[in-house]
Design goal:
Layout (H helix, E strand, L loop, with lengths): L28 E5 L9 E6 L2 E2 L9 E3 L3 H12 L11 H11 L4 H15 L12 H22 L16 H12 L3 H14 L2 H8 L5 H7 L2 H10 L7
Antiparallel strand pairs: 1-2, 2-3, 2-4
Organism: Dimargaris cristalligena
Subcellular location: Mitochondrion
GO cellular component, one term: mitochondrion
Length: about 240
């Protein structure tokens, strides 16, 4: 994925994507209309001292007028940078850049969706253990509502197992869910891709981008085994 470290302004757009950490060189971050007016069908740019930020591939990041809140959040991300730019603290900017550089064409989108489809057949929340009970309880609490919602919402059957190998979804389920994802806006697809890759769960990614669960709930759902261990044994500090 394209990282925020590769983001640039006009003066550094041609620089390599892999480069040393940048120091903050701007004084003011603003959100400005591209035509000087806040029209409904217009666009906004985030500017650092009047210079628009760019993606790693050199595209000026532009936000549609109906997504102005997203633009304001990008401004907040860049304004929060102190002496050194920290890529991990620019997650929304990174997602926007990914949607523009890596998911704008139909071929790019199809390639990404094909890659993500693999997670549907190895989905973390479809492999459910039957012991110990604290883990079983957490799995049921965090995962069952997601599976039930997806089955009802998209009229598919989700297979689950307590075996380590041999589980997969039916061709009908795969086709239906991939058809749903193929309709995602590039920005939504970028968020979905990030969620699936981090959680190792296609279904959890769907639940997150469709606001069935919050980010906090998604993180907890992806860490039920760890949370069950903490519940049973307590939190063990890492002394390394």
């Amino acid at each position: 994925m394209d990282g925020a470290a590769g983001l640039s302004t006009d003066e550094s757009a041609a620089a390599p994507k892999t480069k040393p950490a940048l120091s903050r060189f701007w004084k003011q971050v603003t959100l400005e209309s591209t035509d000087g007016k806040a029209k409904r069908n217009g666009k906004f740019q985030v500017k650092l001292d009047k210079r628009p930020i760019k993606t790693p591939d050199g595209q000026k990041i532009e936000i549609a007028a109906d997504r102005k809140i997203l633009g304001l959040l990008l401004v907040a991300e860049w304004d929060s940078q102190t002496k050194v730019i920290k890529p991990h603290s620019l997650p929304l900017t990174s997602l926007v850049a990914r949607s523009m550089d890596g998911l704008s064409s139909n071929q790019q989108r199809q390639d990404v969706i094909k890659h993500l489809s693999r997670y549907l057949h190895t989905d973390a929340i479809c492999f459910q253990q039957t012991y110990p009970q604290p883990l079983v309880d957490l799995q049921d609490k965090a995962w069952s509502p997601i599976i039930e919602w997806i089955q009802t919402e998209y009229k598919v059957k989700i297979n689950v197992t307590d075996e380590l190998f041999g589980m997969s979804q039916t061709p009908e389920t795969e086709a239906q869910l991939l058809a749903v994802v193929s309709e995602f806006h590039p920005l939504k697809l970028a968020a979905f891709e990030r969620a699936v890759m981090h959680s190792k769960s296609f279904l959890l990614g769907l639940a997150l981008v469709n606001r069935l669960v919050s980010v906090e709930q998604a993180v907890e759902a992806s860490q039920v085994e760890l949370l069950a261990q903490i519940k049973q044994w307590g939190l063990v500090e890492d002394n390394n």
